[in-house]
Write a structure and sequence with these properties.
about 500 residues, single chain, alpha+beta
Length: about 500
Amino acid sequence: MIPNLSKPGFSFKGAYDYHAHDKGTRETDDRVEWSATRNLMTDDPKTAERIMIATAQDGDRLKQEARVKNTGRKSNAHVQTLSLSWHPDERVNRAEIEQAADDVIKRLGIGDHQVAMFSHTDTKHQHIHLIINRVNPRDGRMATFSNAKRELDRWAKDYERSRGKIVSPNREAKYQRKEAMKDRYTLEERRAYMEKKAQNRAVAAEKRQKAVESTRTLPEAMKASDAATSRPPLPAEVLRELSEAQKVRHAQEWAELGKNYKAGKDKITAEWREKFRAARSDYDAQSKGKWRQFGRQQWKLEKQRDRLDQTFKGRLALSITAAREQQQRALKQGKESAGLAKLTWANLRDPELRNSTFAPAKEQDRKIFKRWYDAPLQPKIDRLNEFRSQSYREHHSRFQKDRQDLMARQNVERQQIKDAWRSIPREGRSKEIWNEQSKGPLAMFRANRNAEENRMADRGQSSTQSQHKQQDRSVASDPRQAAARGALEKMRENKDQEIKPDRKQDRDR
């Protein structure tokens, strides 16, 4: 059993033209032995094609109806094809072929998708083609086949074992080796080995990380990392650790800069808060008698109101005053108010309503007195606010300067890392940077690779020259081609000019 998964396509029409007809024509279908469908409600290929196209076009609407979020990358590759091929010595009937196709559909998790099957007879081996609509007709989601090749390979192994006949010995040997390796060690032993290996890698990486934290250039990092571990590190490995250490250090520098800025700002706030409190305390000490005088006046008004409340005439006077205050308050709020007589009668009958009217007036008098009391202090408060704002601006200016300096320095350090990354695969790298690695296995590998590239380039040029000679002999032997000799020589010159820069470019690589 050989399963073959093709790349996703964009045209159902092209897929049906190839699989539902003979090659190169839409007029005949002699090679199609039979066809079948799944989740299409029809066996007619033309009708099935139109249904698949309509389903793929309505993918967004299907998602909306199924309440599926329409997010992620959009794709128009709605067509997926695969084939199942049996060995030429095997003979299976239609029921067995359809059962195998259904098993594959279930194994790939596309049981709800629309599938069309076509059995062909144009080869010695029996095979079937499947056209799959990647858009699910239930919810509009797109099926993925990222791991489908491995899953099909495992299914083919299980299929041959279930039939009791192995026709793919190489695949069977591969899975037997895997199973033998699994049985060689117990699960606990494998887990212990992987944990120990991960711990060793973590310890080595931590040593190298600590070693390169204090370095800023690649040569220093190479020396520090080489001294930290017994195994000579690769340049890319050290550069990666240097990059990680640089990222951590840069993040710490930004955090420290923000912390210092906040601390400085809090210090300025605390200093000026004390200055504001001192100014308020001095003014209150100098004007302490004013509040005592205001309190005495308020106490006298309360006593006078209490005396008036003892007689009917006094209560009537208080009710009239409360009614007028209520009318003024309603006028300020834009509301309609009752007449003076009605309000006076209501206040005369309800002492709580009368007293509740005088309470806001008392608070209003207190606010008015406070504004009058704070008026001499306000110019000094304004000057202190100006000085405090100036301190904040100076502190922010210093922060901006430190921020720009930090950005410039970190950009230079990141650019050095980028330049070091670019220099790793190049042959003309600096000897000062790579002196310790010049005789290592990496340099030997690059030397062998360059020699192999040069041999391939020489072989390609020699084969091209032999082709030119063969063309010259064919032209000389045939008199009818003598007129094309000049054009052939020009073509050969152009090819030689193209080969030489390519060989030079390969050598530079």
